[in-house]
Structures are given as C-alpha cells and as structure tokens.
Write a structure and sequence with these properties.
This protein is mainly alpha-helical and 153 residues long. The protein contains six helices and two strands, in the order H-H-H-H-H-E-H-E.
C-alpha cells in the first residue's frame, strides 16, 4: 500500500482516529516511570502520532522487500473478493473508553487488532475509493460470534 494513501484513509475514518486518540491519551497519562517501560510501538505513537502507527502496520516481515513501483492502491483494483473472511476479523478489539469502561460484547482482552485485518481494511478502503463505495465481497461459513463488527471493512 502507498503509505500516504493509507495515512489519508486512516485520518478519514472516525473510529480509527478516536481509537488512536484514546490510546495516546492513556499513554500520556502514565507516570514517567511507567513511560520508561513502553514498547517501541507505544513510544512511536506518543512521539510521532498516527504516521508512526501506520508505519508499524505497514511494516513488512523481516527479510521481505516491497516491489518498487507497485502498490495496491495504484493498480486500480475495483473488485475485492475475500473467501474465509473470518480469518480477517478482529479489526477493532475492546479498548477502554473515555470513562475507563471496556465493552463486554466485543469479547475479552484489549489490544490493537489483527494486522491481517488492518491490511484487508486498508485494501478494501482503496477499492471503495476506486469504485465510489462498492466492490468488496466477504465470504465465510464461520459465524461472527461476538459482533457483526468483526467483519466490518
């Protein structure tokens, strides 16, 4: 994916902006001693904001390289069909809200969501941008146990 296109997409989606804002607020509220124990990802989010989060999500596994000049959002994909869509669920995991409560209907535990789900979300966003809002089909025989939001892209 083109990093600037992903950053533009992330900044246009209220749910993602809100999630990152809440995360930064929680990290900023930590005592100095606790801030010393933050992961590199958390430190980057605090220091560089959304762009650091996008960089982390788009990072390739060690030993992999991008094909120069080829990006998903620039090749003009207008239809994305995903079989076994349940393999891409859990885009948004439960997080503490402004009042500190964690929604119970989304399962237990917190976190940043599945990297695979974020990759699909970014690509689906590029397809919807290309087609004016359509062109994404999710197929699965696995039920969404916690919420239909598991399959939101």
């Amino acid at each position: 994916m083109n990093e600037s296109a992903v950053l533009e997409y992330v900044e246009s989606v209220e749910a993602i902006r809100r999630s990152l804002t809440l995360r930064r607020m929680r990290l900023n509220a930590l005592e100095d001693k606790a801030k010393e124990k933050l992961s590199e990802r958390q430190k980057a989010l605090l220091e560089h904001g959304t762009s650091a989060w996008v960089d982390e999500i788009l990072a390739l596994p060690e030993g992999w390289q991008y094909d120069p000049g080829v990006t998903w959002d620039e090749i003009g994909v207008d239809l994305l069909i995903v079989d076994e869509a349940a393999s891409f669920k859990n885009l948004h995991l439960p997080q503490a809200r402004e009042d500190g409560s964690i929604p119970k209907f989304m399962g237990s535990g917190g976190g940043e969501g599945s990297g695979r789900a974020w990759q699909l979300d970014f690509r689906a966003g590029a397809v919807r941008r290309q087609t004016g809002g359509s062109g994404v089909v999710l197929l699965t025989a696995t039920p969404a146990k916690n919420s239909p939001l598991e399959f939101t892209t």
